[in-house]
């Protein structure tokens, strides 16, 4: 397609206008999600130090909220296609940061996890040995609106290597259970479609 053809200019401007429109649409959704999440936390009298909101995977309709309290995080999902959008369900995720007390604060692997997750992480025991922990980056939420069977989007394993030093492994690189992913995709699609208004 030659640069002088009118269709090229038309497509260029169409792309620019679409991109700007989508950016504005996303900004409006971001502000609306913030307001709805703050209202949900206030209605439940949940005290928090900070919070974040973001769109769920591959769409701009279902948004999640994650708030940090003293001992736990509070997580919820909201769909803008619901009859009355809002964070109707808030799940509590215990921090369990005490499980990391035996690791030096300046340890390279531990420092990386705190930096990478921006401090939004919880901790779970992993395996039976006791020297491996699962550290979950909560900035990406959960696969669903409730913690079920460790359905974190971005988990890491914190373990000791052969030299006895702490190291990190991204745990979700292994093949996933196809049935579990199918259920997650189905639930997300229902959430995107939204809850209709009852007549």
Explain this structure to me?
This protein has 3 helices and 8 strands, in the order H-E-E-E-E-H-E-E-E-E-H. The chain has a 4-stranded antiparallel β-sheet with strand order 1-2-3-4. A hairpin with a 6-residue loop joins strand 1 (50-55) and strand 2 (62-68). It is globular and about 65 Å long. The protein has helices spanning 6-43, 108-116, 178-193, and strands at 50-55, 62-68, 72-79, 90-94, 121-125, 133-142, 152-160, 166-170. It is an alpha+beta fold and 199 residues long. The protein starts with 5 loop residues before the first helix and ends in a 6-residue tail after the last helix. The chain has one domain.
Give the topology.
Layout: H1 6-43, E1 50-55, E2 62-68, E3 72-79, E4 90-94, H2 108-116, E5 121-125, E6 133-142, E7 152-160, E8 166-170, H3 178-193
Antiparallel strand pairs: 1-2, 2-3, 3-4, 5-6, 6-7, 7-8
Mean pLDDT: 88
The residue fraction in helices comes out at: 25-40%
Shape type: globular
The portion of residues forming beta strands comes to 25-35%
Between the first and last Cα atoms, what is the distance in angstroms? 53 Å
As a whole number of angstroms, the C-alpha radius of gyration is 21 Å
Helix/strand order, N-terminal first:
HEEEEHEEEEH
Show unreliable segments: none
How would a crystallographer describe the biggest sheet? 4 strands, antiparallel
Extended strand count: 8
Order of the strands making up the biggest sheet: 1-2-3-4
Alpha-beta classification: alpha+beta
- Total domain units: 1
Number of helices: 3
């Amino acid at each position: 397609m030659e640069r002088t053809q009118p269709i090229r200019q038309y497509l260029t401007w169409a792309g620019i206008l679409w991109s700007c429109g989508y950016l504005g649409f996303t900004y409006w959704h971001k502000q609306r999600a913030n307001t709805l999440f703050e209202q949900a936390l206030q209605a439940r009298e949940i005290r928090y130090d900070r919070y974040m909101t973001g769109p769920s995977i591959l769409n701009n309709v279902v948004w999640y909220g994650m708030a940090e309290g003293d001992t736990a995080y509070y997580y919820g999902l909201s769909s803008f296609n619901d009859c009355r959008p809002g964070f109707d369900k808030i799940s509590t995720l215990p921090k369990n940061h005490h499980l990391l007390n035996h690791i030096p604060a300046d340890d390279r692997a531990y420092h990386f996890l705190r930096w990478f997750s921006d401090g939004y992480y919880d901790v779970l025991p992993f395996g039976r040995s006791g020297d491996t922990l699962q550290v979950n980056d909560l900035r990406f939420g959960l696969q669903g609106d409730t913690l079920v069977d460790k359905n974190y989007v971005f988990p890491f394993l914190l373990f000791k290597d052969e030299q006895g030093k702490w190291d990190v492994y991204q745990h979700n690189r292994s093949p996933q259970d196809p049935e579990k992913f199918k259920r997650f995709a189905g639930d997300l699609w229902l959430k995107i479609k939204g809850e209709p208004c009852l007549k």
